Structures are given as structure tokens and as C-alpha cells.
Amino acid sequence: MAAISGLDRARHELGHHFVGYHLKFEMGDVSIEPPLGNLVFIGGTSELDTSRPITSMLELEKWCEDRVKVLYAGVIAQALKGGVVDNQAAICLTTEVSGHMDHKMVSQLMNLLRNVRYSDRPRADAEISMQADELELWSETSDLVAS
Questions:
Q1: SS3 of 50, please?
Q2: Sign of the dihedral defined by the CA atoms of residues 65, 66, 71, 72, in that order
Q3: Do residues 19 and 13 make contact, with C-beta atoms less than 8 angstroms apart?
Q4: Would you kindly state one Gene Ontology biological process term found in this protein's UniProt entry (predicted)?
Q5: In degrees rounded to 5, what are phi and psi of residue 3?
Q6: How far apart are alpha carbons 66 and 141 in whole angstroms?
Q7: What value does the mean pLDDT take over residues 106-123?
């Protein structure tokens, strides 16, 4: 996995923070941690409270969508250069140090959404529908980060 610079880590964490704030999550601190010893990994966090009242399946879907957007926002903001998101670079970042944990959480949330929305369909059809939903969430997040 590639090393990440302090500026890239700051962009990543501030992307989470910006989108979380926009989507009305209660946001906490943003931190960037310098590497320890010989490690090249620069850590960081963007704290948010994911608590929301969920009293219906529609509210659950909305919560999952908003949480996915916050998770995507890190790599999308990291790939923002000159006000333009390099989507290919952002997608590549989902497998790197900066984005792999976020991507794992996105996968779990998308599985939950698939089970809620498309459990009455054959799995292959449900997967196609979820890919379209995931692309839409990515696009909405990209537009928000670039705004």
C-alpha cells in the first residue's frame, strides 16, 4: 500500500467532516497523526456521531445512504485537485491505506441496503440494482465534495 502525505490525509479527513456536517451528522474533532518511528503511515480521524432515530425502513435506508456518502467523501476529497474530482484516482484510493477501511464499511452498508430494498429479487438482479444505487451515491458525494 502506498504512503499518504499529511496534506492528502487532511483532505481525506476533512472530506468526511464536510459531508458529515452537510448531511446533519453531529461532528466532532478532526485529527491528523504524524507517523511513528520508521512508519510512513500518517493516521487521522474525523469523529462523528452516527446516532439518529430510525423508526421506519425508509429512515434506515436514508441513514445507510448518508453514512455511505460520508465514507466515500474521504477518498473523493483526497482526489480533489483544482476543484475537480479525479474519480479514477478516488476509486483506486479505496484499496489503499487511506480508504480500505472506509470501503469495507461501505460494502457492509450496501449489503444491508440490498437486503432491505431488493430481497424479493433474484440475487443477480439485486446486485445490478445495487451497483446502480452505489454509483448514484458516489456521484452525489462527488458533486457535493466538488461544490
A1: coil
A2: positive
A3: no
A4: proteolysis
A5: -70, 160
A6: 9
A7: 94
Cβ contacts of 137 within 8 Å, gap of 6 or more: 65, 68, 69, 72
Domain ranges within the chain, ordered by starting residue = 6-146
Calculate the CA dihedral of residues 125, 104, 64, 74 and round it to 10 degrees: -120
User: How far is C-alpha 26 from the chain's CA centre?
Assistant: 16
Going by DSSP bridges, is the β-strand pair 80-81/26-33 parallel, antiparallel, or unpaired? unpaired
Mean pLDDT, to the nearest integer, of 114-133?
94
For 20-31, write each residue's pLDDT tens digit: 999 999 998 888
Listed in sequence order, the residues at least 6 apart from 147 whose beta carbon sits closer than 8 Å to its beta carbon are none
With a pLDDT cut of 90, the percent of the chain lying above it is 62
Lowest-confidence segment of 32-46, 74-88, 95-109, 132-146 by average pLDDT: 32-46
Rounded-to-integer distance, Cα 120 and Cα 76, Å? 33
Mark 1-32 as b/e (b = at least 16 C-beta within 10 Å): eeebeeebbbbbbbbbbbbbebbebebeebee
Q: For cell 448518508, name the residue.
A: 66
